[in-house]
Write a structure and sequence with these properties.
Length: 159
């Protein structure tokens, strides 16, 4: 699978890359956002949400596993950081968010690895610390989507 790697700094650039990429997303797409604490997963989701027409403030859900925002289509933001596994949980817990009408972002997706159908996953983004406010962002995903995302990011940063 094709992979895309980018260096971003500062946080605003992570948001901008997410915004550019979100322009290629379609209903039903699920994006997994991985990376250590503080690497910018929520920052990424915030940028993507803006491009998807969400006007609400995006922050991590705290009393539920997710939130649904209203954008040009429904946008689900799930954060599984407090969960080791979804085994034993109601299957609807995740399914309620990952509807075919929504674009869905999952922070800390490991707990859902057994439940997620691989064909639903449009992109897997991994963020890592590079020191200070630099982050490495790598993305792998559906080849058609990757090609369009690459094109968009190239036109965003000429040279
Ligand atoms: N290049 C960068 N990209 C993203 N965030 C950055 C960058 N540089 C600095 N930051 C800062 O790092 C922090 C990232 O916080 P954020 O909540 O997005 O991380 P997170 O990965 O969602 O954390 P958590 O694991 O707690 O959910 C923010 O304060 C952001 O401003
Ligand atoms: Mg977060």
């Amino acid at each position: 699978m094709e992979e895309l790697e980018l260096d971003t700094r500062p946080a605003l650039e992570t948001e901008q890359v997410a915004e550019a990429l979100a322009g290629e997303l379609r209903a039903g797409d699920v994006l997994l956002i991985e990376g250590e604490v503080g690497t910018g997963k929520t920052t990424f989701v915030r940028g993507a949400c803006r491009a998807l027409g969400v006007r609400e403030t995006v922050w991590s859900p705290s009393f539920t596993i997710g939130r649904v925002y209203e954008g040009r289509l429904p946008v689900s933001h799930v954060d599984l950081c407090r969960l080791e596994t979804l085994e034993g949980e109601d299957p609807a817990l995740l399914a309620d968010y990952l509807t075919p009408e929504s674009v869905s972002f999952i922070e800390w997706p490991d707990a859902a690895s057994a439940e997620l159908e691989p064909e639903r996953v449009a992109l897997r983004i991994r963020l890592s610390h590079l020191g200070g406010d630099r982050r490495l962002m790598s993305a792998v995903g559906r080849p058609d989507l990757m090609a369009r995302v690459k094109e968009r990011l190239e036109t965003r940063r000429p040279g």
